Amino acid sequence: MKVSIILLSVACLVAHVTAYGQSIHHGQKTRNVRTHVRRNTTSGDVPSTQGSNFTIDGQADYFAGTNSYWISYLTNDSDVDLVFNHLQESGLRILRVWGFSDVNSKPTDGKVYFQLLQNGSATINTGPDGLQRLDYVVAAAEKRNIKLIINFVNNWSDYGGINAYTTAFGGTSTSWYTTPAIQDVYRKYIKAVVSRYSQSSAIFAWELANEPRCSGCDTSVIYNWAASTSAYVKSLDPQHMVAIGDEGFGLDVGSDGSYPFTYAEGLDFAKNLEIDTIDFGTFHLYPSTWGVPNSFGNGWITAHAKACATAQKPCLMEEYGVTTDKCEIEGQWQQTGLGAKGIGADLFWQYGDKLSAGNSPNDNYTVYRGTDDYECVVTKHVAEV
Ligand SMILES: *[C@@H]1O[C@H](CO)[C@@H](O)[C@H](O)[C@H]1NC(C)=O
Ligand SMILES: *[C@@H]1O[C@H](CO)[C@@H](O)[C@H](O)[C@H]1NC(C)=O
Ligand SMILES: *[C@@H]1O[C@H](CO)[C@@H](O)[C@H](O)[C@H]1NC(C)=O
Ligand SMILES: *[C@@H]1O[C@H](CO)[C@@H](O)[C@H](O)[C@H]1NC(C)=O
Ligand SMILES: *[C@@H]1O[C@H](CO)[C@@H](O)[C@H](O)[C@H]1NC(C)=O
Ligand SMILES: *[C@@H]1O[C@H](CO)[C@@H](O)[C@H](O)[C@H]1NC(C)=O
What we know:
This protein has 385 residues and is an alpha/beta fold. Helices cover 39% and strands 18% of the residues. It is built from twelve helices and 18 strands. It has helices at 5-16, 23-37, 77-90, 131-144, 161-169, 180-197, 219-236, 269-273, 287-290, 296-311, 326-339, 372-384, and strands at residues 48-50, 53-56, 59-61, 63-67, 94-98, 102-103, 115-118, 121-124, 147-151, 203-207, 241-243, 281-285, 315-320, 343-348, 351-352, 354-355, 358-359, 367-368. β2 and β3 (59-61) form a beta hairpin. α2 packs across α4 (131-144), α10 runs parallel beside α11 (326-339) and α11 runs parallel beside α12. The radius of gyration is 19 Å and the shape is globular. The site of one 2-acetamido-2-deoxy-beta-D-glucopyranose (NAG) has 4 residues, from loops.
């Protein structure tokens, strides 16, 4: 998702700054937790694919899940636990989180950041206001047997993204994919994250980027980047699945000729799916921001299902949302996803809950626990799954 969520999330984080005073204490606590994170897994436990399905704990099934970009940045452990308890109670099995927070200058307000990119150099923050926050998320997921998708970089400027790299190292949002110095820094970051959690039972999959686009580029740019980066991730962690994290743009099968089906953003869904170090396809669904009607959704889902069935890899419907009539519209998409051979799981955008400092960020797509929309988009859907 790309919206002005950064403003909301900043408001949320500011509310948590008071909790930062406890960071030394948390640091000690999370160090202990990390020992727990490092538990080895046996290969049968590792989430995987089986034809068009995913498997969790060795069981092939259809899974329902959700997204929470902000959970990695919470500074209150109780809030993290609360969310995971609620996810577990709700029967949501997969949670997609941001594994990045890139900044160009060191925050002075206690804001959580994972990597400082400044003046041509990169420093990874493994401190209590850095990756130790992600450690807590991973440990909390392990305890509830919830599986995480951890994403390495944002195309958008929220939490730094590609723009934070180009600010520190030069280049543009399109040259980012092919600039060796930048890719070297990006890989070092990937290595830090993957090696930190590769033995955790909580990992569902690694994801190369959130909504990578290369506007106007030949599709070979993203294809080559995805092929070489996913091979690199597999070299670090052959056990876990790897996906791209793209919106699913660029597809001939089932195309109605509208913008999302075109190759304008430099993506070729079917070709990217052929990469053997990419385990499953991802696609998003936001008709209102793409300039198509909501009725576009069902065709978009079945088109991807078909492409994934052909590739014999599952598709993950990993972000979808509307701002009004969530129950009716998202409910229909969920039905289509569940019924389509080729779709293995869906994650609505985005989960909402009541945290110690107030509601989690609201981008109008948020489905808050305890609301009628939640009954429908979560409770009913999970029961059907
Ligand atoms: C953390 O969250 C818990 C539970 O919601 C709350 O009781 C506590 O006051 C919070 N701590 C801080 C420092 O905000
Ligand atoms: C995890 O444990 C298994 C079985 O003991 C072992 O074969 C494997 O090498 C371990 N993996 C790592 C990365 O340590
Ligand atoms: C995938 O799961 C569905 C049920 O969710 C089942 O009918 C189908 O046989 C499974 N396919 C494979 C290849 O396991
Ligand atoms: C990095 O550059 C900024 C100006 O862009 C400067 O203020 C700062 O001192 C530099 N930092 C280092 C570590 O060189
Ligand atoms: C994300 O990708 C699009 C398409 O290449 C580009 O226009 C946009 O600037 C990118 N975002 C950032 C923050 O670079
Ligand atoms: C959510 O919707 C309200 C009412 O339409 C609007 O005022 C607000 O700006 C929206 N928030 C976001 C983040 O788009």
